[in-house]
Design brief:
The chain is an alpha/beta fold and 609 residues long. Bound molecules: 5-amino-5-deoxy-1-O-phosphono-D-mannitol. Residues 300-303, 347-349, 352, 355, 398-400, 488, 602, 605-606 line the site of 5-amino-5-deoxy-1-O-phosphono-D-mannitol. 5-amino-5-deoxy-1-O-phosphono-D-mannitol binds next to helix 10.
Length: 609
């Protein structure tokens, strides 16, 4: 949802900004641009397209100057065009700005500014900010920014430079993420950590309505009234290499292949001597855990699918009723939250605006909030009572893969922990559950090792126009996730359905052109029923690609294609079944000539509601 990088220091800014921006391209890739202060003047280069192409066409790197801001855009207000690309500047070209977010009262502000003679040259909401700052400038850029921000409704992360004050970089945020990176005789701003990881691992998280005045040697942070605030400097544990492709063709593929390691790392430190050791992280007493009467999960997209798997886990093993809500819908009802209700927010980025809004609604109603988040220090993490971090490392691919499996791991650990404290799982069962969990990394690796076999299947289906994904029980959300992955990166229309629901409508779509992907792993719950659903598909000429348990001899005669996963407990099957579906979607996307890291129209962190 747009990426921002800013630099102030002793080095040439442009190459540093381009490098940082490339790490944020997952946030927006329809246009990009840079502004620097060179010889007391603002110089701007921007264009539509991806950064590499823009660099080739107009040479962003050639901009001189040691202070600069940059932006990659995911269009909200105004079409994709050079004029609408950031940075924007005022008429005299002595103030320039990059922005991520939405200014809700921009029409009103634009009318007001136009009536005062300010001329606009883009269709963006962002441009009002730069003219507003200009209108308030009376010799102190920070004061002008503060006055402008007080008039703005909506969300913003912004970077600003001014040739009237050339040794300063200004940053501000409200609802959209922005961090400050602390270097040696240089400082940075960025929308996300990967942009600056190769420069520093020391960061300050700006909070809502905070403004930072940054020089090469100093960072001062102020509240919206101009009072100075003391901020903590955090150390980031991720290293720069984690944000590189590491020899893989795409981040998505790298992230799929990282899953065995990510799972081990998410588990590490949370199990000891056959016990789940979440006590310290969660901080709830046994009595508080026993008193939980209901859990509401709020999340979006893939994280919402993780929530549905969590619903199966928590209800079955911890005996807590769970409702899984689209975060975007949650606050438009009047959700009933009493003191036995706990809210779990799931988010890779920790910045998804809808999920953030949902937890704020829950907080208003006095719910305790646990978040399962990947990005340390993100807004959702900071606004939760308890944070359980997934340790997936930076996820750059827009299509979420390793974050999903790590979310399932945290949900599983939480479930077994709650279940044992609530007296529904005894010591031996905890031991068995941990044993099952420990099998996963090697089992997932064995699926990844079958990449050529999965690729072969992708080759047979990459030209299809539609696909139906079916699953039952705990694998129903995996059908949803498989379909989401396929549509995100391949642009093939795909629907995920509970297998038995198919006969209540989607069955009308089935013919020999329609591939039906069925999660049909062997268990003693839904397997037989799924076999019946498969026969219903076959009777109508559909082609069935089934995710099956290795060694299952029965299913072969009913389906056209098998993708195998090893056997584990029913509750952990989703972690295995999802892997071939991620790979299938990835290979199909590549065969169709798509770049799976930058699916069209999508952005990694959706920071607008
Ligand atoms: O960062 P979050 O987990 O909150 O993001 C939620 C969704 O936007 C995200 O899962 C989205 O659906 C992905 N593109 C899925 O691959």
């Amino acid at each position: 949802m747009c990426g921002i990088v800013g630099y102030i220091g002793e080095k040439k800014a442009a190459p540093i900004l381009i490098k940082g921006l490339k790490k944020l391209e997952y946030r927006g890739y329809d246009s990009a641009g840079i502004a620097t202060i060179d010889n007391g003047k603002i110089a701007i280069k921007k264009d539509i397209g991806k950064i590499d192409d823009i660099e080739k066409n107009i040479g962003l790197k050639s901009l001189d100057g040691c202070v600069g801001i940059s932006h990659c855009r995911w269009a909200t207000h105004g079409k994709v065009s050079r004029e609408n690309a950031h940075p924007h500047c005022n008429f005299e070209k002595n103030i320039s700005i990059v922005h991520n977010g939405i200014i809700e009262n921009y029409t009103e502000l634009k009318n007001k500014l136009e009536s005062k003679g300010f001329k606009f040259c883009s269709e963006t909401d962002t441009e009002v900010i730069v003219h507003l700052v200009d209108s308030y400038y009376e010799g102190d850029i920070k004061e002008a920014v503060i006055k402008a921000l007080k008039e703005i409704d909506g969300s913003y992360a912004l970077g600003l430079i001014s040739s009237k004050d050339p040794d300063k970089l200004i940053a501000a945020r409200k609802e959209s993420p922005l961090i400050i990176g602390i270097g040696e005789k240089e400082n940075f701003i960025a929308s996300d950590v990967p942009a600056i990881l190769n420069k520093t691992n020391k960061v300050i998280y700006l909070d809502n309505e905070e403004i930072a005045l940054i020089t090469k040697d100093k960072v001062d942070v102020f509240d919206i009234n101009g009072s100075k605030i003391k901020k903590k400097v955090h150390k980031i544990e991720w290293d720069a290499e984690q944000a590189e492709k590491g020899g893989y063709e795409h981040f998505m593929l790298k992230e799929i292949f990282e899953q065995p390691k990510v799972i081990s790392e998410t588990v590490e430190g949370r199990i000891s001597n056959d016990e789940i050791t979440l006590k310290k992280e969660i901080g709830l007493t046994k009595e508080e855990i026993k008193k939980i009467r209901r859990i509401i999960v709020v999340a979006c997209g893939t994280s919402w699918h993780a929530g549905i798997v969590g619903e199966f886990m928590l209800e079955e093993l911890a005996k807590i009723p769970v409702e899984v809500e689209y975060a975007s819908e949650f606050r438009y009802r009047d959700p009933i939250i009493d003191d036995g209700t706990m809210v779990i927010a799931i988010s890779q980025s920790g910045e998804t605006a809808d999920t953030l809004a949902a937890i704020r609604e829950a907080r208003k109603k006095k719910a305790k909030i646990i978040s399962i988040v990947n990005v340390i220090g993100s807004a959702i993490a900071r606004e939760s009572d308890i944070v359980l971090y997934t340790k997936a490392g930076p996820e750059i691919g827009v299509a979420s893969t390793k974050a999903f499996t790590s979310q399932l791991i945290v949900l599983y650990l939480l479930t077994v922990y709650f279940g044992s404290i609530r007296g529904f799982i005894d010591k031996q069962q905890v031991k068995n559950r941990i044993r099952d969990l420990r099998m996963l990394p090697l089992q997932i690796q064995s699926i990844l090792d079958e990449k050529n076999y999965i690729k072969l299947h992708a080759k047979q289906f990459y030209h299809k126009k539609n696909a139906l994904y079916l699953g039952r029980g705990i694998n129903y959300p995996i059908a949803l996730e498989g379909a989401l992955k396929l549509k995100e990166v391949s642009y093939i229309h795909a629907e995920g359905y509970p297998a038995a629901e198919m006969k209540h409508g989607p069955i009308a779509l089935i013919d020999k052109e329609m591939p039906i992907v069925v999660v049909a792993t062997k268990d003693n719950r839904t397997y037989k029923k799924v076999l019946s659903n498969i026969q219903e598909v076959k009777a109508r000429g559909g082609i069935v690609i089934a995710i099956v348990t290795k060694g299952d001899k029965e299913i072969g005669k009913f389906v056209d294609h098998n993708l195998y996963v090893p056997k584990n407990s029913y509750i952990l099957t989703p972690l295995l079944a999802v892997i071939p579906l991620q790979m299938f979607a990835y290979y199909i996307a590549v065969m169709r000539g798509n770049d799976p890291d930058y699916p069209k129209n999508l952005a990694k962190s959706v920071c607008v509601e």
